[in-house]
Design brief:
- There is one protein chain.
- This protein is α+β, with helices and mostly antiparallel strands and 347 residues long.
- The chain has ten helices and 19 strands.
- The strands form six sheets. A six-stranded mixed beta sheet has the order 4-3-2-1-5-6. Strands 7-10-11 form a three-stranded antiparallel beta sheet.
- Helix 5 links the parallel strand 5 and strand 6.
Length: 347
Amino acid sequence: MNSKFQSIFNLIKAHKTDCFISTSLITREWLIEANTADFCLIFARNNKIHVFVDERDITNLKKHNPNLIAHLYKDINTWLDFCKTQKLKSVLFEDNTTSYEQYIQYIKPLKTKLVSISADDLRIVKTTDELKKLQKSADIITAAIEHLKRWTKVGHSEIAVAKELYKYVMAHGASGLSFQTIVSFGENAADIHSVPTNRKLKKNEVILVDAGCICQGYCSDITRVWWIGTPPKQIKEMYDVVLKTNLLGIKNAKANVIGSRLDAVCRNFIKQNWHNYDIPHGVGHGVGRLIHENPRINKIYHKSLPINSVVTIEPGIYNSKIGGVRIEDTILITKNGCKVLTSKSPK
């Protein structure tokens, strides 16, 4: 059986429910790997995946995957009549991707016990195929960063650098960006989520680029910092501390480590080595179909990182007067450690 299908059935069993229902686009793309229009309902039970779509998609869906049971959705009664035949006592559904309208229309009328889970948790453990796609996405963005290191010159604007990155990834196999590229020079690098401006690069200034792309539906994420000339002494010292923290996080990342504990390892190192500074964001997040998903590496994520989950390690230090430094890698969690997917871009 498809390992993704099996993970759904395992969840149904673990939560002691009769079935799993999904109305979300992201789950649809992940689970059935088929392009459908805006409307799609998924119903999983007894090792079978039922998919309800309208006339636009029914023919292609039947051809796409013989393991799916395709249903033509005519109106709400198509759905409700089917669910009545299932004689449901309990339903597992996604609380964070089900809209209120979807809940009222498709789930509440079932009048049964409801058990909710996070849709993010479905996608934490990646399949072999997903890992290949994530690596390909990482390879494209690391190559783009290396291109920018050679291409960027004094006098270029932040916007020009961001445009060059976009042009590069699209020419090398990406279908788009996984988030708006952050390019910041000098003091702008202290803005964690800065937006590229017309500000031009001067010699001896810090250059921070945080970027990602999408390849075959999967995201990548990397942050690199460099400079042309000689940076201010404090920036160089800041960089050294952040680099050591990044490497420490990678060293301590392995299967079953608790997200909040890994965050604390990095956070405490920076506090001890940079004037009791506290990182103003989590040290990492999951990467997959979405650029930010579970598992997390932050103060409040007390779950473990399982084998074959993919996360970032991205400590940073920021000073509004001189700028900031963040160094980020995307890593694959393995049994005894991790594999750095973005290693082709040196630090």
